[in-house]
Design brief:
mainly beta; globular
């Protein structure tokens, strides 16, 4: 099993994410990495683009989350 939460901390703008399922493969490019409040869910609102949003905990900081967003290429 792949631990996306642990690996997402290493992602940076311009990195590629490959998302594979039984239905096919899609590629995304990271365009944003930011720290958000644990209560901020605005980053997962609907958009007109196909976007992957990864949100994970930050070690020793219960009130914040790391948010990485990537657009389909």
């Amino acid at each position: 099993m792949y631990n996306i939460s642990r690996k997402s901390t290493n992602l940076k703008t311009g990195d590629e994410i490959i998302y594979k399922t039984k239905l096919g493969t899609k590629k995304y490019i990271v365009y944003e990495k930011q720290i958000i409040a644990s209560t901020d869910w605005s980053v997962i609102e609907n958009t007109n683009e196909n976007i992957v949003t990864l949100i994970t905990c930050i070690e020793n900081d219960a009130s914040s989350r790391l948010c990485v967003r990537a657009k389909e290429i």
